[in-house]
Design goal:
- The protein is mostly beta strands.
- 0% of the residues lie in helices and 24% in strands.
- It has no helices and five strands.
- Bound molecules: zinc ion.
- Pfam families: DUF5999.
């Protein structure tokens, strides 16, 4: 899959987000990385094996209630 030198970090790597972009769709809020990870604008991720990584936004100290 990856033909870069040095090769991109695998999807299982903690460093997966530093893989190269192969598709970037800012208007849709997502990017596809070389290792097959889909990286969303809100920092969420979809791994090639179907796992979902929840967004890691900094938590607001004051939780708002509707
Ligand atoms: Zn690569």
């Amino acid at each position: 899959m990856c033909q870069h030198q040095p090769p991109c970090p695998s999807a299982d790597s903690a460093d997966r987000e530093s893989a190269r972009l192969v598709a970037h769709h800012p208007e849709q809020g997502w990017s596809l990385l070389c290792n097959g990870v889909v990286f969303f604008e809100d920092t969420g991720e979809l791994l090639p094996d179907g796992r979902v990584i929840a967004p890691q936004r900094p938590r607001d100290a004051s939780l708002t209630t509707a």
